[in-house]
């Protein structure tokens, strides 16, 4: 009888499941989006100075592309711009004065805010497909999204 009680006790304890906190701690993490590369990515402007941008009809979506050779180019919505950028240290991002054409269009205020934000750039953060351009105080002056062209 003693051996059958021992066997029943062993079976009962062997069937216990792990505590909930132990199961949650060992569960695989949810997949995350890898960070888009700073260079050679088509970054489309989504916010400037904390405000979402809207693109009037018949104007281009503002974008920025940072080339591997240190060239910065893009479109502010009305005009193309070009210059150079510096990113010698981790998270550093500074632009030389950008040259652009001088045409006017309904989105000129957005363009001026975008190029003004780039002029204030001091650093950046990338999280997934989002690039945040930060000024010297660490405040976000622009938020851009990586758009993958086909």
TrEMBL record:
- Taken from the record, one Pfam family name reads META
Q: Gene3D superfamilies given for it?
A: 2.40.128.270
Key word Cytoplasm present in the record? Answer: no
Q: Matching InterPro entries, A to Z?
A: DUF306_Meta_HslJ, HslJ-like_sf, Hsp_HslJ-like
Q: Is Signal one of the keywords? A: yes
Instruction: Tell me which residues make up the DUF306 domain.
Output: 36-144
Q: What keywords does the record list, in alphabetical order?
A: Signal
Renumbered to this chain, the signal peptide range is: 1-20
The record ties this protein, via PANTHER family, to: HEAT SHOCK PROTEIN HSLJ
Q: Under which name does UniProt file this protein?
A: META domain-containing protein
